[in-house]
Specification:
Strand content: 25-35%
Distance between the termini: 24 Å
Number of helices: 3
Structural class: alpha+beta
Strand order of the largest sheet: 1-2-3-5-4
Largest sheet: 5 strands, mixed
Number of strands: 5
Order of helices and strands: HEHEEHEE
Shape: globular
Helix content: 25-40%
């Protein structure tokens, strides 16, 4: 069951960075090397903050479940004039080369926020890319 937005605890602007840092720290504590770059998180509305945080958490949980520990994880959040992009690159485990239910849920969540998500094996790596625009499609909330 997908909760309605009114039932979801939204993330305060100041808490997003700390929550992302905590998610990265959990992956490091699980024995992974993580190269993390987090850009400007300002300007996201409540739904996009929550969406970004959930995408980070699910992506990094999938890394801990499925990725090859020997391959460093690259984690970036970039900001540009059109929105914010999350990229997570990890070592692909042979058992995790096709998207599962978690990826389907991530894609649905991203689309509800007006964004796009891809997740696929690329050159012996598993790559998740999500883009959340500053404004939803149609230009209004």
């Amino acid at each position: 069951m997908i909760p309605r937005w009114g039932e979801v605890a939204l993330v305060e602007p100041d808490a997003v960075g700390a929550e992302i840092d905590a998610a990265v720290a959990r992956v490091r504590a699980a024995g992974f090397t993580v190269e993390a770059t987090v850009g400007d998180l300002d300007g996201l509305d409540a739904i996009r903050r929550l969406t970004l945080l959930r995408l980070v958490q699910e992506s990094l949980t999938n890394v801990m479940k499925h990725a090859n520990h020997a391959v460093p994880v690259r984690f970036t959040i970039d900001r540009n004039d059109h929105g914010i992009t999350l990229t997570v690159v990890s070592g692909a485990d042979n058992a995790a080369t096709t998207p599962g239910h978690g990826i389907v849920g991530m894609r649905e969540r991203t689309e509800l926020a007006g964004g796009t998500l891809t997740a696929a094996a690329e050159d012996q790596r598993w790559v998740v890319r999500a883009h959340l625009p500053d404004r939803p499609r149609g230009g209004h909330e």
